[in-house]
Amino acid sequence: MKQRDEIVVLTDAVLITCIVQRGVADTVVDAATDAGAQGATIFYARGMGVRQKHLGVLGITVNAEKEVIYIVVPADHADHIFERVYVAAKLDTPGMGMIYMSPLDKMATYVPPEIAARFGHHG
Q: What is the reported pTM?
């Protein structure tokens, strides 16, 4: 096995976080990968808050069981992927969930050279 002297650190990366109703994560991941994302991490959570009470008054049922999707993408592709996920998850519908983006100061993992180049790393 070849020893690596260098850690590939990506600095032009963005984390897109999408929180949706249970059962919607696969749709989100499909939209993200179709838009160019390399993959995603999905985990389960339980949500609660004031908004659910207000939506309940409107007669909309909001399940407390959530899926949270993390998608790390190159900064220059982030807006496109964000928009595609927003539409696919129907986040313009009350009670469906939310999405947000956060810049990452740096990120490291094994990254194939052709993917590292997309993130602005030239190694």
A: 0.79
